[in-house]
Each structure stands twice: as C-alpha cells, then as structure tokens.
Amino acid sequence: MALSNVFETPAPGFNFDNTSRNAALEGLFDGGQTPKPMKTGTTIAGVVFKDGVVLGADTRATSSEVVADKMCAKIHYIAPNIYCCGAGTAADTEKTTDILSSNLTIFSLNSGRNPRVVMAVSILQDMLYRYRGQIGANLILGGVDCTGNHLYTVGPYGSVNKVPYLSMGSGDLAALGILEDGFKHDMELEEAKELVRLAIHAGIMSDLGSGNNIDICVITRQGVDYIRPYQVSEYKDNRKTKYKYRPGTTPVLTEKVVRLKLEVVQESMQRMDTA
Amino acid sequence: MEKRCTDSQVKGVSTGTTILAATFDGGVVIGSDSRASIGGEYVSSKTINKVIQVHDRIFSCIAGSLADAQAVTKAAKFHLSFHSVQMETPPLVIAAASVLKELCYKNKDELQAGFITAGWDRKNGPQVYVVSLGGMLISQPVTIGGSGSTYIYGYVDAKYKPNMSKEECLQFATNALALAMGRDNVSGGVAHLVVVTESGVEHVVVPGDKLPKFHDE
Known about the structure:
The complex is a heterodimer of chains A (275) and B (217).
Chain A: H1 17-28, E1 44-49, E2 52-58, E3 61-63, E4 66-69, E5 75-79, E6 82-88, H2 90-111, H3 117-130, E7 137-145, E8 148-154, E9 160-162, E10 165-168, H4 172-182, H5 189-206, E11 214-220, E12 223-231
Antiparallel strand pairs in A: 1-2, 1-10, 2-11, 3-4, 5-6, 6-7, 7-8, 8-9, 11-12
Chain B: E1 13-14, E2 19-24, E3 27-32, E4 36-38, E5 42-45, E6 51-55, E7 58-64, H1 66-87, H2 93-106, E8 113-121, E9 125-131, E10 137-139, E11 142-145, H3 153-159, H4 166-183, E12 191-197, E13 201-206
C-alpha cells in the first residue's frame, strides 16, 4: 500500500547489495584490521518544556579510538517544526534523517499541511523495523505541531516511546541522572536550556565517546533557534600555524592548453505543444 | 547501547513483562506493568504503554520484543479498521485476536511477541483471547502472560471467580499485578488497568507507591 507521502513504495524485503561491495573492500586489507565505521559515541538529550522542546547534543564523532570529527552536527533538520538527534552509526543516522526529511517535504507539498511529529515517528518506525536492527540509528525526535509539543525516541529495532525527557547514546546514563534529578513539568525556556546543557555536559565529562562542544536546538510555535555551538569546550586547542596557503604559494612553471575536438554525432528535434 | 545487549534472546528493547486479562460480569479488565528493559539489565523506560487500543472496545497487551509488538499491533489496527469499514459494524474480539494470530503464525521465525487480546462485542459479550509466541490462539476467561506471570499462577488459580463484580475484578487484577511486579525484576513501574464494558472504556493507572502492599513489604 503506497502512502501518499512517500515518493515510491519501498521494495519488499531487505537490500543487501552492499554486502558484496564490503566483502571486496575487506579483501583489500588482506586480513588486517579493517577501519570501523564512524560511530557517534554520543550524548544526546531532549526535554519538553512549557512552550516547546529543547534538544541537545555533543559534537564528537569517533572512529574506534580516534576522534574523526570535532564539530559533528548531530541535530538534524527534519521539517521546519521537527528536529532529530541521532546516536549510533553516523552514516545511518545521517541518511535515515535525510530520507525522512525528503519524504516529509514531499508530503507537505502534496497535502499543503505541516507534518506532525507522530507522522515522522511512524515513518521512521516502519523503516527501521523493516531493516531489523541492521540500521544502527538511535534517534530522539522532537517537534511542535498543532497537537502540542512532543518528544519521541525510536530505537534501532523500531521500538517507539513517547516521553517528556530523554537521553541516548553512550553517555546517556550520565545525562539521564541529571535529567531525572532536574526535570519538572512546564519549565521555562532558560531552565530547560540549562538542564539540557548540564545533561550533555555530564555525558561529555563521564563518557569517552562524547566530547567537544554542545549544540542546542530550541523548537517552539514561533520557530526554531538552532544554537551551534551553545557552549564551546574549554579544552579547545590553539594551533600555532595555519594549514591554509595563499594563492601563489606554489609557482606555476609552464602552461599548456589543448583544445578538445568535439563533433556532433546526433541531433534530434521534438516539437513541443505549448499553450 | 550495544554493551547492554547481553545474552538475552530478545534483540533490542524487550518488554519482560506482566500482563493479564480477566472477564467479570458485564466486561473485562485488562492490565499490565510499565517497564521496558534491554538485556534484562537496564530499564530503558519506566512508563511504557503495553495496553494498546486496537479498536473502540478491543485492547491488546503486548509481551516480548517491543519493536516486534509495536509493528504487529500497528498492522493489526489497520486491518481491523479496514475490516470494520467493510463490514459496517465494529469487529468482534475474535476477529482482532485472529488478525494478531495470523501475523504471529505466518511470521513466527522472525517475530518474538505474544499478545493478550480482550474486549467486548455485541455478539459474545466480554471475551479474553491469548495469542502466544508461535501463533496459538485460545480463549480463556482469565489469562496471564509475560515473564512476571510465573509468580502469580497460584494467586490467579486460587482467587479468580467467574462473574465477579467490576470492583472485585479490578482489585483482583491490581493485586495480581502488584504481586508479580514485587517478585519479577523485569516487571515494574506503574500498573495500567483498562476496564471495557458495553457502555465504554475506563482507564485506571495505579502508581507504584499506591499498589497494594503484602506481608513482607
């Protein structure tokens, strides 16, 4: 059954085309250690407050023990009123939220309505369930729509839970402690932002996979305030020299221009009826 | 997340649970706890809803893998809604239970979810059906399910009487859930109870600290 929002119905079953490509890539390493996929060993958190939803995330992306990206954006745009934090495999969270965002935009254009958070959650749940946990995406979806302020979590196997506050990722236990202690219903904006900041900070301090800066995204009826970074890490290093080079640093010794000969092979004309 | 998936058979979030349903004179009481865990070690949610409304007077309790159960009940809701539009009448409870049974039986290799379906319909009145993991469907006047149910078989066998009043049945269900949650580590949180009768549906939520206490508490 095709949903009006989805461009085309997904093919039934799973698509494992990439397994043969992965096997070929592994062959290149000749039995050595293959690089692990980039994970976002992360702390993400979300809180529902009086006027909307606050989402927070750290900005570290790791590949095994190396920090691959110090300024990774983990709060993804889904719709003008819906944003999503992602933990787990970086590529999976990126692509899943991208696909979701495209589908919802098509739906908005077709139906003339703003998407509801439950709809985004439903689509995500269907997609992740179909892939039986192979897509390693732990997502926190937050948004404001005509029915109110909502915060949902979607697990990699497709389980959904609606909650007033929540944290996910490898630093979730540390962040959850802060949230459990400090959460109150109907908080004000500044209280909520401070609570989320503290929660992410706890995750950064207590978890090796989380670190660097803190991003905050505030979603209300009036609009979205995406503050990136909300708090910069005090452990930022200062590079002594720059890696950028001025134009002209590498001298040009000779220049040779070769004209490419192109010939017209086929020309066809189609009359178009215009009104 | 992965570090918490130990050698539990259920992948991802499981509802290691206590669910029950019992018929009384004029309706059914359906109840569950509200704990969801990962690998039997980490409580991922204290407030999960395991009593899902699949139609106006029909509810389903879920046990097993949360993702599988939610996916199956979503499909079941759609089928039932479509069925009731086609028939121009609310579906029978047996129809709801059969829809779940078909889904569980046809996909028994991939799914890990069990259900208790209960409700009221005009033809047969209050009924309770259980759909187990492999897709067996049987009708019983009272039934319990989930990991916590093992601790209350004795209580249910001794205390259940057919044609109780609504208040007696509610008290029976609350006691049973409290006893199970007290002994089973993967059941807990609040007790969700739903009373379905011809006139309507009533939700009762008993917070953990208001549950009945027994001799050793």
